[in-house]
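Chapter review. Work through the record for UDP-N-acetylglucosamine 1-carboxyvinyltransferase before attempting the end-of-chapter questions.
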Amino acid sequence: MEKIIVRGGRRLNGSVRVEGAKNAVLPVIAASILAQKGTSILYDVPALSDVYTICEVLKYLNVDTKIENKSIKVDATKTLETEAPFEAVRKMRASFLVMGPLLARVGHSRIALPGGCAIGSRPIDQHLKGFEAMGAEVTIGNGFIEASVKGRLKGTKIYLDFPSVGATENIMMAAVLAEGTTVMENVAQEPEIVCLANYLNAMGAKVRGAGTGTIRIEGVKELAGAEHTVIPDRIEAGTFMVGAAITGGNVLVEGAVSEHLRPLIAKMEEMGVEIIEEANGLRVIGPEELKPVDLKTMPHPGFPTDMQSQMMALLLQAKGTSVITETVFENRFMHVEEFRRMNGNIKIEGRAAIIEGPSKLQGAEVSATDLRAGASLILAGLVADGYTRVDELKHLDRGYVEFAEKLAALGADVERVKVQETVETEEQAETEEATVVKMKPKFA
Ligand SMILES: CC(=O)N[C@H]1[C@@H](OP(=O)(O)OP(=O)(O)OC[C@H]2O[C@@H](n3ccc(=O)[nH]c3=O)[C@H](O)[C@@H]2O)O[C@H](CO)[C@@H](O)[C@@H]1O
Ligand SMILES: C=C(OP(=O)(O)O)C(=O)O
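Structure tokens for UDP-N-acetylglucosamine 1-carboxyvinyltransferase:
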């Protein structure tokens, strides 16, 4: 079993470069399926387990991918398969994003139902509503969702009940090859949507309005592979910004785009954190004392749910009471129990978490309940007394490249180790200690 072990007490100093965004690269790789001719080359691709997972899904669909040095070549010119089995979809819900492109290009797709996940039930009704509105017939059975259309999908007007990021992306990818014009309303406005639209347009699509509440797509007959650079990861950037703030450090987060981080910057400044825009990123300087704030997670440009647990770690260090309300996911407070193990003073009331600070955090054995929780527990460990050991790193590896190594380069006392649990009998337990072997992360 692997763990990250942190010893609290060091300030972060120096600079760190953010990777390409996980939540942008996954839909972009899925969109590559739409290219009937030519090869796509994507740049600034992060070495995350999720990227390998989506490439595995593409392999089932007979799409070739080749990862090389932060770039990836995607060739979708062979005859496509249209079925993605559960073993491909279970690791990552974003695998479902292949449905829109398949439906658009070959008129059929059968994808295993993604199933539940640590942060809530996460239905896909809005994706399906969009496909059906464009003329697809959707059936659900035996753990699969099957969608098919005779001929091409038809452009239409679609109003989403909620600005779902995944539904906006999936429907947008379906609509680019539809006959006629599709107008999507109440859509997600996240920077990752704009990144996807730019890639689709580079492939020959006609998408307008991405980044606003209404997207208008004129369907085209064919798309070709294109080159595209993935935007910087605003959540990884935000995580390091919190790292600087929580330790009272001074860190330049290279590649952080202030426009993408407005809600986080606003809240951190309210807390007394100094954030300076520099030519190549954002400099974050932690104050001696942090002020409490209230925040509510919302679709972009509201406060991102993917930064909720990191902000909770920070608010545990603020002097006074803060309230975080989670409105995007129904069950995204699993990390609270883990923070409590570290002596964090947090109460849950429905969708709100009430945080009393400053909590004198103590190192403890904790589990990453999801990928952001993993990062947040490590952040809390940076200021806790003694050693914090975080396990379930498979979640962390979905969203962070070399997280421990990057923190160590900023001066944190942190390392990733492999713990070989060799203890088999009680007798052995008295004589043998678990062996700790330092190792590089799996996806470096
Ligand atoms: C790979 C990726 O980009 N993941 C991000 C994406 O996830 P994802 O695309 O899954 O998130 P959505 O925006 O779709 O989900 C937001 C909310 O809408 C609900 N919903 C969604 C679709 C649907 O058909 N029906 C429905 O009810 C979900 O259950 C959830 O409560 O956006 C989330 C919200 O910013 C982020 O936390 C995730 O990191
Ligand atoms: C919830 C997240 O991702 P996913 O939608 O891939 O589970 C996340 O990135 O925090």
